[in-house]
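re the bet — no i am not wrong, look at it urself. input seq straight from the record:
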Amino acid sequence: MQTDAKQKMLNRLINAKLVFILGFDAMDLWQDPQHVSLARPSVILINNRPRGVPETLDISDYRHRLDFPPQRKSSETEFAKMLIRVLILESFAIIERYCKQTDQKKLLQEQSWHNIAYHLRNCAAHNWKFFFDERTSPKRFPAQWRGKEIPKSWGEPGNEQDWDLTYFTFDYIWELVKEMTSFAEASLE
């Protein structure tokens, strides 16, 4: 039988994935010429559901910047990275918090994907650079999963490597989070 706490944790994992999907849907909508007019106004109207009132955001100082291809490409890349950050940070934190609360942290740390997920979460949270803290990181190696590896040298002081989106791709992160979710569903009490 599944506890309410576990069901809440699983629901939060689903929501993290849905935010990721919605973000890429928004990017796709933005890039479709049929819908570009939706993104053209210098004002955005948002329905603030918690308050029950609409809010108007004036974006006129920034909207025109997206008309320049280099700025747009840079902004789209940052938006995509934000989606990865939210997906990996939230998913890892949700599972880790649940494992701490239910005394299952050792089981979490034994998973084949744990070390790489730990380092990717930290990298996404710390300006997209790998940095290994001598206090906590040494026990998090080897950090590898499904043919990808994070070597210790990537996070040595003065040699911090940037996250490479051609190496740790969107689909790799998606598969990692799916594996994390499968663990949460099947292995956690």
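see?? Residues 4-31+69-187 form one domain. told u. also Residues 154 and 161 are 5 Å apart (CA to CA). so pay up
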